[in-house]
Amino acid sequence: MSGRIDQDQKLFETGNFADFIVKCDGREWKLHKAILTSRSEWFRRAICGDFKEARENELVLEEKDPDSVHAMLLWVYTKTCQSFDPSIFANEDLLYGAYAELYKTADFFLQADLKKEVRGLLAAHLMSRAVQMAKLYCKNPPHAGHEVFLSDDVLRGLKLGLEVAYSYDFPELHAVFRQIVEMTSFWVLEDAKFVEILDEVPLFAVDIIKLIPRSSHFLHVPVAVRQGRAMNAQNQPRARVDDNGLAAGGWLGKFGRGVKRACRGFVEVMAEEESV
Questions:
Q1: CATH number assigned to the domain comprising residue 51
Q2: Which PANTHER family does the record match to this protein (predicted)?
Q3: Domain residues for 46?
Q4: What pTM was computed for the model?
Q5: What span, in angstroms and rounded, lies between the C-alpha atoms of 259 and 199?
Q6: Distance (Å, rounded) from C-alpha 37 to C-alpha 17?
Q7: How far apart are CA 77 and CA 92, in angstroms?
Q8: What is the DSSP string of the chain?
């Protein structure tokens, strides 16, 4: 990092010469008006306007994730993610949800550049996983790749990230998460545990359905599978086709049934909300 960034980060970490305080869920940050108002439109309006926060030099944030607030404030000071807490943003069990929460926080505080950075970092991580998945799938027997790739910590973290992302109308963030399916040529849908996520996040399932017709990656899936008939090496059916025309033993069958369950749950939720 440059000298200025190092100095600004030191100011953020030490709180020396601070003249403004931000509090959130028991945590406190001693900050500097000059930096906040010159680098954040949201803080400029809050601090320079005729508000209680401006008069008392203190801002109390309610219903915000403190880790995301910390990362957002660090971004305001340094404009880099290099110093983000690695125990959160480099932890496979937490990083997907952490980035989704940070994206939500950045949106609230009008940090468009941070939103762009988060999308890029998340996309890069998902892409690396997708490449790893594709290599394993091609090199090893069909089930070896996704069993290695989709470990429990990855699935837990991915599920948390999807739940946060799809709780808000962030289509550009949804698109980033969808690439884990498209970039693996939909092979990831062979994993039964991954398909279970569709039950928990039905809107994600709907997005995948919309993705299939226009995805060039779907063309790499054998035609027989796309038609609902899984074939073995001798070009003979190896999976029973169920009553819905789906290959019962292939990923399309698992995915189809998972989507059916997910969409049914989504309809039930919508019906309950309309009846309230």
A1: 3.30.710.10
A2: SPECKLE-TYPE POZ PROTEIN (PTHR24413)
A3: 1-65
A4: 0.75
A5: 8
A6: 16
A7: 26
A8: --HHHHHHHHHHHH-TT--EEEEETTEEEEE-HHHHHHH-HHHHHHHHSSSHHHHHTEEEE-S--HHHHHHHHHHHHHS-STTS-HHHHT-TTTHHHHHHHHHHHHHHTT-HHHHHHHHHHHHHHHHHHHHHHHHHHHHS-HHHHHHHHS-HHHHHHHHHHHHHHTTS--HHHHHHHHHHHHTTTTGGGG-HHHHHHHHH-HHHHHHHHHHGGG-GGGGGS-HHHHTT--B-TTS-B-S-B-TTS-BTTSHHHHHHHHHHHHHHHHHHHHHHHHH-
Q: Is residue 265 part of a domain?
A: no
Burial of 206 (0-12, 13-18, 19+ CB in 10 A): middle
> Is residue 247 scored above 50 in pLDDT?
no
* 209: in domain: no
Read off φ and ψ for residue 51, nearest 5 degrees: -120, 165
- What are the strands of the beta sheet with 58-61, ordered from one edge? 27-31, 20-24, 58-61
Q: Count the alpha carbons within 13 Å of 91 in the hemisphere toward its beta carbon.
A: 12
Domain annotation covers residue 10: yes
**Number of domains present in the structure of the chain:** 1
Percent of the chain at pLDDT > 70 equals 69
- CB neighbour list of residue 163: distance below 8 Å, 6 or more residues apart: 97, 200, 201
Query: Residue 25 falls within a domain, yes or no?
Result: yes
Residue with tokens 């060039």: 216
Q: Which tens digit of pLDDT belongs to each residue from 92-108?
A: 888 999 999 999 999 99
